[in-house]
Amino acid sequence: MLLLALAVPSPASAEKLKSFKLKTLDGVEKTLPDVLGSKATLVVFFFPTCPYCNAAFPKVQKLYDSYREQGLSMVWINVVPDEQKLIAGWRTQHGYTAPVLLGKQSTPREYGVRMTPTHYLLDARGEILSKQDGFNPGDEVRLEQQIQKALAP
Amino acid sequence: MKSGWNSRFRKRWLRSLAFFAAITLVCVSPVHADIIVARNTPHLSFTASLSPDVVKQGGRLTLIVDITPKKRMHVYAPGTNYRAITVTLNRNAALKPSKPVYPKPSIYFFKPLKEQVFVYDDPFKLTMTIAIGALQPRTSRLKISGTLSYQACDDRVCYLPESVPLEWNLAVGR
Q1: Which residues of B touch A108 (CB under 8 A)?
Q2: Is B160 within 8 Å of A137 when comparing Cβ atoms?
Q3: Closest residue of B to A108, CA-based?
Q4: Taking CB atoms and an 8 Å limit, are A51 and B156 in contact across chains?
Q5: Chain B residues with CB-CB distance to A141 below 8 A
Q6: A51 and B160: CB-CB below 8 Å?
Q7: Per residue in B89-105, pLDDT tens?
Q8: pLDDT tens digit string along A91-115?
Q9: Residue B161 touches partner A, C-beta closer than 8 Å
Q10: Would an 8 Å CB–CB cutoff place B159 in contact with chain A?
């Protein structure tokens, strides 16, 4: 099985994810510091009709449920603005509770997102610990290991 | 199996040849540059041609989009929950485009969700007919524009939806 998880090499590990100011589904503006968890944050770029996102998200939601009490924060950023109207129904249909932010037309360019899902695992300061593009069954295991490592005391 | 692969390879090779021939045509002939659009994206290459090359009031045009997905790429056909490839024309009071006509898709088994989806992963054609209504008097050229929209995935990731602009500039005949 092809694992897509690519650990960011050490020089990039000190790189911070560029901050953003994006709206929630309720119209509240959030920045990256607003959503950072006490220990780690998983930022996922997605759009609701992306097949691999739909394959990944039940597992990613489980990671959120399992680790949020331990300091994991999560945010899913939609990168296709014309699918914004689908998001509320899509979340309800699948029972997703991870917070969603509405990306702008420029979001994919600003974050170099050419494919989805793109996962960034960040530490408490917003520094990139790892990046994973795409999803195949089994990738959640690697992601969980990275989260556990980030949350470890 | 081998001969199937060979025929598939030959078909792809001929399509590539046709695509590059179309690009050459576009580059060397100012007349054809107006009726054939050739584009190459990271996910597919295509030519979109209109015929005939002269527009007449009350006449019809045929738009043929020849699309070749890149290796391991697929785009979605209508009838799935995903974004189907489509061609749309921008509003123009003189034009009445039909809905695009799609060929029979392939069935792709999407392992991560264990679902079968309709896709195009081999070269295929979309066609559309365009009825020409009343044209402005003394118009010598008619600009037709639109987009080819699709969302491609390979066996690992999905790419962001794309909208490729199309534009033709045809002579108006009386």
Answers
A1: 160
A2: no
A3: B160
A4: no
A5: none
A6: no
A7: 999 999 999 999 999 99
A8: 999 999 999 999 999 999 999 999 9
A9: yes
A10: yes
Please check whether residue B134 touches A, CB under 8 A: no
Q: Is the complex ipTM more than 0.85?
A: no
Mind telling me how many Å the CA of A134 is from chain B's nearest CA?
4
What pLDDT is attached to residue A8?
43
Q: What is the CATH superfamily name and number for domain B2-172? A: Thiol:disulfide interchange protein DsbD, N-terminal domain (2.60.40.1250)
What residue ranges do the domains of chain B occupy? 2-172
Domains by residue range for chain A, with CATH = 20-151 (3.40.30.10)
pLDDT at site B14: 63
pTM summary value = 0.80
Number of H helices, E strands in chain A: 6, 9
- The whole-number pLDDT of residue B139 equals 86
Residues of chain B with C-beta less than 8 angstroms from the C-beta of A133 = 156-157
Q: Could you tell me how many CB contacts below 8 A there are between chain A and chain B?
A: 57
Cα gap A50→B152, rounded to integer Å: 10
Transcribe B31-72 into DSSP letters.
Answer: HHHTTEEEEE-SSEEEEEEEESSEE-TT-EEEEEEEEEEPTT
Peptide bond into A51 cis (omega under 30): no
Residues above pLDDT 90, as percent of chain B: 70
pLDDT reading at A2 higher than 70: no
Q: What pLDDT is stored for residue B112 in this prediction?
A: 86
What are the E-state strand segments in chain B?
36-40, 44-51, 54-55, 60-69, 74-76, 86-89, 95-97, 106-110, 115-120, 124-132, 141-150, 152-153, 158-159, 162-172
Q: Which residue type sits at A63?
A: L
Instruction: Say yes or no: B95 contacts chain A, CB-CB below 8 A.
Output: no
